[in-house]
């Protein structure tokens, strides 16, 4: 046997052992998550799902999902009339990123998430937005990540993860005053499909907002690669979305290639060990059985973990009640409504405690 053959054999053995170790570690992590109650521990499950297991796909899926909302004339016209998107698309991206992050990392009735939600409610109150549009955007936040993870993730979402995500966003929707929210994720998916079939039509404001967003995304790509990146972005879109924003159809083989790039990410993840749980620390609000950290200070300035798109915003940090362009410091009211589980039943403990506790049976 030649030296090259020996080296190749050693490499194959080591690669196999590494892959086996990754599989074992991921299986062990999955068994820990399965012990959590899908409702009472929904924020712990949600945070792990979004920021530990699928951070890349989750963020990209929401970017793509928000892009889909720009293909709805009634939504894009509101963005056009506000002028904020056209003036500084990157700041609006950061605004959305901050407020969504605050909502996901805290219980919706906790001090910090409640402040973010009231700020969001005030911003929305400045415009005439239909309940149907609100409900569609809510469906995007629930369904788009699940769809992408089913297509491109290294595994599908579990039933517990789907229930936790739906429940958390359902409660956010209730506190935003959205009416007639479906009671199951299947009904929400039916609503989203019917809404898009009827409402996702071309308009000039769709094209304008989509172009602003596309320019924002391409700003981080080297100038020589921007034409190719734009073409791949077009190829990645389904026909309904592409037509609604006025982009040209690309060859079928290019569309297949664009989707293969995303599927490769899911394959590559299987060769990596799971991220540490320290990436997902549930922030438990006052009133829960276990409270983490100090009481919320509304004047606290927080730093963004990282900035995605140039020009950078909030380089000196942000206050939750000042995020967005509408009258900093102004807050709306959290709308009354029935949550799936009230704050008094919140069981989101720090990881070391909730994973060692006796599982709660459904």
From TrEMBL:
Keywords, sorted A to Z: Membrane, Transmembrane, Transmembrane helix
Annotated ranges, domain ER-bound oxygenase mpaB/mpaB'/Rubber oxygenase catalytic: 71-256
Any GO MF annotation of the entry: oxidoreductase activity
Transmembrane domains' residue ranges: 6-27, 39-58
Annotated protein name in UniProt: ER-bound oxygenase mpaB/mpaB'/Rubber oxygenase catalytic domain-containing protein
Organism listed in the record: Ceratopteris richardii
């Amino acid at each position: 046997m030649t030296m090259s053959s020996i080296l190749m054999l050693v490499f194959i053995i080591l690669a196999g052992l590494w892959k086996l170790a990754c599989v074992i570690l991921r299986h062990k992590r999955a068994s820990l998550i399965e012990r959590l109650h899908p409702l009472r521990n929904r924020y712990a499950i949600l945070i792990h799902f979004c920021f530990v297991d699928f951070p890349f796909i989750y963020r990209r899926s929401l970017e793509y999902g928000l892009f889909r909302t720009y293909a709805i004339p009634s939504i894009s016209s509101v963005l056009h009339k506000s002028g904020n998107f056209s003036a500084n698309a990157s700041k609006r991206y950061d605004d959305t990123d901050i407020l969504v992050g605050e909502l996901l990392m805290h219980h919706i009735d906790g001090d910090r998430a409640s402040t973010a939600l009231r700020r969001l409610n005030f911003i929305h109150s400045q415009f005439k937005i239909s309940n149907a549009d609100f409900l569609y955007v809510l469906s995007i936040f629930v369904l788009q990540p699940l769809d992408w993870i089913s297509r491109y993730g290294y595994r599908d979402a579990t039933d517990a993860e789907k229930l936790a995500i739906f429940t958390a966003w359902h409660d956010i929707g209730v506190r935003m005053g959205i009416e007639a929210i479906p009671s199951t994720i299947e009904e929400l998916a039916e609503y989203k499909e019917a809404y898009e079939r009827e409402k996702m039509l071309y308009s000039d404001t769709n094209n304008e907002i989509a172009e602003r967003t596309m320019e924002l995304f391409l700003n981080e790509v080297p100038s020589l690669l921007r034409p190719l990146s734009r073409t791949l972005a077009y190829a990645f879109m389904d026909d309904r979305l592409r037509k609604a924003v006025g982009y040209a159809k690309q060859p079928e083989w290019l569309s297949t290639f664009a989707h293969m790039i995303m599927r490769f990410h899911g394959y590559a993840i299987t060769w990596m060990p799971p991220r540490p749980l320290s990436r997902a620390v549930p922030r438990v609000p006052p009133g829960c059985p276990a409270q983490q950290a100090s009481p919320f200070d509304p004047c606290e300035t927080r730093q963004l973990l990282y900035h995605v798109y140039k020009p950078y915003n909030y380089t000196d940090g942000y206050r939750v009640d000042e995020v967005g362009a509408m009258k900093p410091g102004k807050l709306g009211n959290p709308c009354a409504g029935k949550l799936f589980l009230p704050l008094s039943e919140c069981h989101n403990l720090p990881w070391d405690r909730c994973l060692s506790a006796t599982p709660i049976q459904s």
